[in-house]
Amino acid sequence: MGSKQEPFAEAAKHWDLETLYADLASVKGKRLTPVEKLHLRGLLCGHSPAEIAEKLDKDAKGVQTDLCATLYKYVKSLLDKSDSKLESWRSVTDWLEQAGYRSELSPPFSVSASAPENTVVNITNMRIDENNQITIGINLQITVPLPSDLLKDNPLKDNPLKDNPLKDNPLKDNPDRNGDRANQN
Q1: pTM
Q2: Is 80 exceeded by the pLDDT of residue 181?
Q3: Where are the alpha helices (DSSP H) in the chain?
Q4: Measured between alpha carbons, how far is residue 30 from residues 13, 41, 60, 78 in Å?
């Protein structure tokens, strides 16, 4: 029997949920409840309170009341919009997007020829704060061979002094050639 996917899980593909949960929790004064997170993800997926209620087999009026008493207040406080009128549930997602919580994940791409060939960078979040500073969140994955793999291809492994510029250094122990010009005149 397959496991049922968490409702509104697709929100994680488009929103920086962990940062948003943490920021809303700081406004609330404690962690968001699982129900608050679920309702928030539903809104972020573009569902109305009535659609959220329908998908969760809940009473539409109850979900609307919960949102008004909790998430809407937290979001307004977080974004300093306490005096703003919430025209529609869509305003919440619009405000959060304007605040930089939307994070379209970029498709993986190769970094460059100088990095290992399996290096992947994903941009997870881009935000511009009130001081016009840009914050870019990235997920960097670098795959490197183990040292044993490096040693088998290393031509110096049997002779560590081969091609060593310090071996037979002509300046070593030779005061006339080590930069001490005072004794040469």
Answers
A1: 0.56
A2: no
A3: 17-28, 34-44, 49-56, 60-69, 71-78, 90-98, 147-152
A4: 25, 18, 26, 14
